[in-house]
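[recover] target loaded
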């Protein structure tokens, strides 16, 4: 153990203080009690903010189902996580089909993300919840279709094999899978990002739009068409008002209905408009041009789509009973280079006329390109939500090269945990609400901005001396692991243990880190005076599965050895069998093997918890599942269809499976004990309830 501490000190010897004006990253502004900010080669990309906290004894909210009321967290944040970033000019796909550089995004912007629906990843509308910037070493990613992206090495993109990092290395989940030459990315592709600026509304475009909107609008009565009809949406009416006013050089109100002569639907000679106040007559703007150009065709398509279009799961259709309008729409698509199909529906009633449907071919990628070329006004016609996420030859990785320079990088947090950047699906950081109360970012800061309460022991000692303190049990490890790797440097826990012991306060510790073994002498001494509960999280013993699921974390053997060292020291130790993975580690044989080894290591009790898929964990795990066990994606979608917790029926079945195993191995006692003293806040070591907590391994 002394060698381990010595090596840790050597690794931290290269730390850089960032608050002295020398470092590239300033200390966080507004963080109360901040002493200094440091970073070290041991934790690349992470900054440790050493603070003097005013209070460290935290009351659990009264609405919480947890079986304890008080907790202490020496750290805020996790030093095992990664930082995902993209260069500022990277274009992000907005929910309306347009794009915007990631550096210009703001909280509240609507962008396009993805989610798994019945085992199929589909595009969905989502919202930017956080936006931040940093400086990171840059890598250039080149794709076969000509797309280039500049990102940090930690950034992840979605491939047909799951999420892949730009470069190799380590991250929160262990050694990260990385992009290689030939990897196929998923997304709408470069065609969806070309020409991202809105098409100019030239005079020809305005003329085409009004022609398409008016002619495409509904039928009236007594042989006349009336514009506008009741079904025309306000966004289209607003644009028509603006265009008509421009045509007449003055802005006035649009009449509620303007009759159009019956013959206006056919090509013919209509006198050209003359400059006047008010709005241009409808008869002046619905003429068919003799030689329509690209701008007129784009405007005509936009107007026709706004009048008679629909978008369902990324497919655009325009239905109309007027053969001339359907034919003009088809010819406009052909002129602008889009593939289409024309279908006729003759109806079922006697004398019913054919309704023709012009259907755009090519899926959401082509639809997004059309939206940028045509620019309809109605928002619902710009939504590709529900369309399936696919890849293509243009998204094959050709090369990944480090640029050898650090650059400003940007990232966002979205509701889905991803977004579309330069035509490919891009991962982002997830919000951790426990960080926001410190005025820290709820996304990447949880991973990279670690708050260290260096005075935790001193403040705790003062708070425990209060006459109001009733010596209620204190639980640690339920939010952030007190024995994360940084504890090897800061050594905060010995002081915390001492303060709790001297005050006569019972306490419990739950961890998956083996650093706890360093403090066993202190824990043994504490157990002589107060009840001490110790728990170790062990999810599985299958070494192959563990290596794929959580590479780089303490192995099952190391955690079992920690249990053994705890019990050999004369202390009781419970084991949190969490998370149990449905259909992977929940068989009677797998659980029996694990519980047998837990008992052999000397554990006094065990709690069995099924996997919780909270936001952040959910996206990462489902991507891993799709890569490693694609046949289980559908069953998991059904098991977790209600949210973070697995289906209640599954929980009941797991309980029935586990109960006899716990009894067989003598792990079903009501509570662990310490030298004859009952642990007052211990849970019965059985199976979870929906409100149970777990130390996430993901």
């Amino acid at each position: 153990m002394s060698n381990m501490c010595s090596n840790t000190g050597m690794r931290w010897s290269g730390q850089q203080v960032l608050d002295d004006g020398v470092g590239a990253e300033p200390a966080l502004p507004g963080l109360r009690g901040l002493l200094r900010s440091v970073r070290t080669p041991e934790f690349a990309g992470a900054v440790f903010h050493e603070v003097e906290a005013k209070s460290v004894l935290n009351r659990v909210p009264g609405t919480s189902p947890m079986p304890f009321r008080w907790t202490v967290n020496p750290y805020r944040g996790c030093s095992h996580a990664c930082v995902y970033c993209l260069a500022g000019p990277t274009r992000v796909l907005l929910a309306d089909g347009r794009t915007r550089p990631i550096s210009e995004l703001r909280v509240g912007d609507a962008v396009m993300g993805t989610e798994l629906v019945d085992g199929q990843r589909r595009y969905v509308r989502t919202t930017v919840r956080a936006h931040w910037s940093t400086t990171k070493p840059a890598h250039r990613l080149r794709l076969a279709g000509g797309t280039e992206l500049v990102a940090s090495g930690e950034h992840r993109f979605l491939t047909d094999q799951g999420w892949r990092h730009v470069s190799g290395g380590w991250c929160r989940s262990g050694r990260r899978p990385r992009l290689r030459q030939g990897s196929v990315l998923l997304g709408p592709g470069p065609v969806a990002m070309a020409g991202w600026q809105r098409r100019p509304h030239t005079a020809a475009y305005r003329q085409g739009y009004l022609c398409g909107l008016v002619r495409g609008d509904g039928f009236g009565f007594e042989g006349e068409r009336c514009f506008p009809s009741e079904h025309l949406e306000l966004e289209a009416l607003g644009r028509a008002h603006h265009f008509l006013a421009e045509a007449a050089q003055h802005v006035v109100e649009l009449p509620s209905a303007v009759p159009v002569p019956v013959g206006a639907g056919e090509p013919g000679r209509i006198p050209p408009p003359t400059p006047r106040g008010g709005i241009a007559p409808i008869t002046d703007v619905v003429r068919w041009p003799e030689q329509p150009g690209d701008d007129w065709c784009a405007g005509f398509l936009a107007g026709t789509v706004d009048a008679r279009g629909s978008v369902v799961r990324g497919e655009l259709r325009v239905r109309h009973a007027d053969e001339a309008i359907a034919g003009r729409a088809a010819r406009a698509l052909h002129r602008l280079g889009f593939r289409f199909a024309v279908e006729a529906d003759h109806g079922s009633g006697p004398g019913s006329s054919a309704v023709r449907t012009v259907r755009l071919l090519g899926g959401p990628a082509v639809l997004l390109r059309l939206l940028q070329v045509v620019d309809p006004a109605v928002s619902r016609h710009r939504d590709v939500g529900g369309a399936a996420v696919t890849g293509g030859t243009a998204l094959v990785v050709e090369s990944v090269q480090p640029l050898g320079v650090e650059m400003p990088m940007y990232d966002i947090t979205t509701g889905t945990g991803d977004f579309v950047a330069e035509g490919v699906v891009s991962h982002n950081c997830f919000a951790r609400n426990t960080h926001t109360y410190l005025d820290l970012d709820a996304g990447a800061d949880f991973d990279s901005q670690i708050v260290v309460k260096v005075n935790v022991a001193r403040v705790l000692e003062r708070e425990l001396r209060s006459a109001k303190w009733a010596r209620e049990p204190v639980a640690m490890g339920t939010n952030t692991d007190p024995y994360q790797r940084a504890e090897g440097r800061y050594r905060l826990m010995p002081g915390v243990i001492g303060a709790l012991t001297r005050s006569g306060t019972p306490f419990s510790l739950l961890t998956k880190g083996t650093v706890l073994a360093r403090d066993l002498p202190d824990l043994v001494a504490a157990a002589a005076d107060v009840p001490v509960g110790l728990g170790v999280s062990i999810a599985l013993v299958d070494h192959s599965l563990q290596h794929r699921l959580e590479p780089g974390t303490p192995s099952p053997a190391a955690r079992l050895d920690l249990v053994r060292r705890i019990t050999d020291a004369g202390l009781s130790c419970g084991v949190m069998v969490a998370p149990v993975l449905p259909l992977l580690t929940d068989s009677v044989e797998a659980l029996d093997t694990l519980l047998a080894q837990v008992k052999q290591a000397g554990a006094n009790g065990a709690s069995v918890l099924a996997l919780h898929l909270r936001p952040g964990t959910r996206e990462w795990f489902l991507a891993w599942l799709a890569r490693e066990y694609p046949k289980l994606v559908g069953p998991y979608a059904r098991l977790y269809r209600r949210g973070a917790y697995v289906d209640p029926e599954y929980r009941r079945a797991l309980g029935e499976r586990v109960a006899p195993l716990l009894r067989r191995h003598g792990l079903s006692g009501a509570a662990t004990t310490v030298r004859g003293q009952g642990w007052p806040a211990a849970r019965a070591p059985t199976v979870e309830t929906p409100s149970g907590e777990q130390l996430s391994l993901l």
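[recover] notes: The mean pLDDT is 77.
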